């Protein structure tokens, strides 16, 4: 079996030296699965997570930011040009392929996903990076959006394919993701954007932070307006 690789144009020579082969028809770098273990050290930078022998599933699962942090994303606190710089860097580094499964979307190749680490003890939400995901893997991460938009079947199928899970396992991951999100949404979080300064030299300004706060208020208000009955009571409970 041939495995798709995430190879940026700048390091294509390094990938070729590791044994990767360019498929000109499909416009993709590939490696024979039989070579992965013996050449893993050289291939490590290019292998999507689901094909890395040093990783175990889940390779992708729901990981939603709390409702109290909605809108306070990196895109909100940067200027449009700054955000374009950050996401383009992530796309190029991955060779415009998903770093989890190696796939590309049918309309656009990849989307930018902010990787956050949430410390439940300190209630600190720390940005760890911006990564390239295909639309289906990105949908899994944003499980709430998948539910609201009626695309849970797409997200479930992707979790099954990538993690090599059963339907039951995928459904359990979705439920767990919602349970964790509900618990975390009862709290306000301190958000650490230092990664973007350290990696890209960009400074988060007071204007950007104010924009993020405004975006959060708008998104929460829209969610409350959309909810009715039991859903409204549930949302109000989260914000107490």
Enumerate how many helices there are, as a single number.
11
**SSE series:** EHEEHHHEEHHHHEHHH
Q: How much of the residues is beta strand, in percent?
A: 5-15%
Helical content band? 40-55%
Mean pLDDT, rounded to whole units? 93
Radius of gyration (CA) equals 19 Å
State the end-to-end CA separation. Answer: 53 Å
Looking across the biggest beta sheet, what order are the strands in?
A: 1-3-2
Q: State the major sheet.
A: 3 strands, antiparallel
Strand segment count: 6
What are the segments in which pLDDT stays under 50 over at least 5 consecutive residues?
A: 229-240
Structural class: alpha+beta
Shape from CA axes? Answer: globular
Q: Please, how many domains?
A: 2
Structure overview:
The chain is α+β, with helices and mostly antiparallel strands and 240 residues long. The protein contains 11 helices and 6 strands. Strands 1-3-2 form a 3-stranded antiparallel β-sheet, with no helix packed on it. Strands 4-5-6 form a 3-stranded mixed β-sheet. Strand 2 and strand 3 form a beta hairpin. It folds into 2 domains: 46 residues, no CATH class; 172 residues, no CATH class. Helix 5 packs across helix 7 and helix 10 packs antiparallel against helix 11.
Question: How is the topology of this model organized?
Answer:
Layout: E1 2-4, H1 12-17, E2 21-23, E3 28-32, H2 40-43, H3 74-77, H4 80-93, E4 111-119, E5 124-133, H5 135-141, H6 143-148, H7 152-163, H8 167-184, E6 190-192, H9 194-200, H10 206-226, H11 230-238
Parallel strand pairs: 5-6
Antiparallel strand pairs: 1-3, 2-3, 4-5
Helix pairs in contact: 5-7, 7-8, 10-11
